[in-house]
Design brief:
Radius of gyration: 17 Å
Helix content: 40-55%
Distance between the termini: 34 Å
Shape: globular
């Protein structure tokens, strides 16, 4: 049986898929693919993801792209307690996965790019601050949801927590102030302390 292939690099949205694969204890091959070196635009990679974006997977011939779709697929296929057993639970995983992409990712990315990723001369402080401000309302929603059990669905870590925390990790890197959201801060620290998250992090040279 062919090994799962995950295309991308840890310092990209591919980190989400790498985290999920490690959380599930899967055997996989990470194929470095990046925008910077042109490998995301090769004919070989475009045959897997015609959008030329990261990540994508090849699971024994089944090709899939979009990080949240990949993570939901892997969690549902392999279980390990990460995927709920009821239609209602599945719907909640999808709800939170869609929510974090539509409500938080854009603003957190603006802060990350303009505080960390861009060269100093290209950073736009106003754009970063506006990104942090735009994140305040959804962070309040998240904080209230986590106040119930400390997790997003029930009282255990699930694919919903992994998917949302994977996006929130950008906010932490961008120095978003989480003090007003103590439940979010505590939960994110716990998520990032998981061995699977640490194992999926970019290697520092």
């Amino acid at each position: 049986m062919s090994k799962l292939k995950i295309y991308g690099v840890p310092f990209s949205r591919a980190h989400r898929a790498l985290w999920m694969a490690n959380e599930l204890g899967l055997e996989f091959e990470n194929i470095p693919t990046h925008f910077a070196d042109g490998s995301a635009k090769t004919a070989e990679y475009l045959a897997i993801n015609p959008n030329g974006k990261l990540p994508a997977i090849d699971d024994n011939g089944f090709k899939l792209w979009e990080s949240m779709a990949i993570n939901c697929y892997l969690a549902k296929k392999h279980g390990k307690g990460l995927w709920p057993s009821t239609p209602e639970g599945e719907a909640q995983v999808l709800q939170w996965s869609f929510w974090v992409m539509t409500e938080l990712e854009k603003s957190l990315l603006a802060a990350l790019l303009n505080r960390v990723a861009y060269p100093e001369a290209q950073r736009d402080k106003k754009a970063a601050d506006e990104g942090e401000k735009a994140a305040q309302a959804p962070l309040k929603v998240l904080d209230q949801a986590l106040a119930k059990t400390g997790y997003l669905i029930g009282s255990n870590f699930t694919a919903a927590d992994l998917n949302v925390a994977a996006v929130l990790s950008w906010g932490k890197m961008a120095r978003i102030d989480l003090k007003p959201y103590p439940n979010v801060a505590k939960w994110l620290d716990a998520c990032q302390a998981r061995p699977s998250f640490i194992k999926s992090q970019p290697k520092r040279g």
